[in-house]
Design goal:
94 residues; mainly alpha; 5 helices; 82% helix
């Protein structure tokens, strides 16, 4: 069953990327619970802004996803963790 979940998530990300990152609705609907959970883990002051930045990163790094061989959810989680760590360090320096 988890294989079909990965396939569904992969299809959502693929559709987002094929559309040039223009149709964000389904991507947000599918991946935002994961991203909000990660943002809470990192105790970010502005989780909505942080998640927006993750989706911007997804748009910029789109060509790297399929060659990575990673499931979409794991790839997005990796981008999010990297972004959230950066934001966390910037917030603690302020």
């Amino acid at each position: 069953m988890s294989g079909s979940l990965h396939d569904c998530n992969d299809e959502v990300l693929r559709a987002f990327l094929v559309g040039g990152g223009q149709d964000l609705y389904l991507c947000v609907k599918v991946f935002s619970p994961l991203l909000f959970a990660l943002a809470a883990h990192y105790r970010l002051a502005q989780p909505e802004e942080a998640i927006y930045l993750v989706f911007e990163e997804v748009r910029r790094q789109a060509a790297c996803w399929e060659p990575s061989g990673l499931p979409a959810q794991l790839w997005i989680a990796g981008l999010a963790c990297r972004r959230f760590e950066t934001l966390g360090r910037a917030g603690s320096a302020a």
